[in-house]
Amino acid sequence: MDQRTLSGLTKAFKRDRATFGPAIDPREAFRLGASLGQQGDVEGARSAYQQAIDSGDAEHAPAAGFYLGLMLGQHDDIEGAKEAYRQAANSGHPEYGPKAARNLGHLYKRQSRGRQAIAAYEVAAGYGHPDVTPWAMLYLGNLFRHLGNLPDARASYQSAVDSGHPEAGPRAATHLADLP
Length: 180
Prior knowledge:
The protein is mainly α and 180 residues long. It is built from 10 helices and no strands.
């Protein structure tokens, strides 16, 4: 997006917020959030993404939640990232829902919150996404193994192997073979 277009979108966004409150086109709010985020304006991007999320739009709200989570995570706002990911994960969107749930699981895992990580990875796996689900099953296997739950670790690894995923499957097979 060129600078002139971005400037126009920013002015329209500010005008619309001042005049109409949260009523702004979710697609434009999402685009503005992405552009402001790329320019390093975290607060501006957060506000624009939040407008898209608050719209409830079936396509742009989950996308905004996912990308807001990414951006906030990169800027060490872990609680904000988790909230954005939760919103996208619960959206039912076939692409952003499972990816957000997976990333939420990663954040919980980094915080050593295994039970919450398991719940998030289970949501990610439940979407049946051809790329995300096998990885989520691998991550679940790792967490179950760490917690000493070998039957669930075995089942999770086997599910990742059975998926036929070219990367997650072989990794899961290696872990499966290493189980006692």
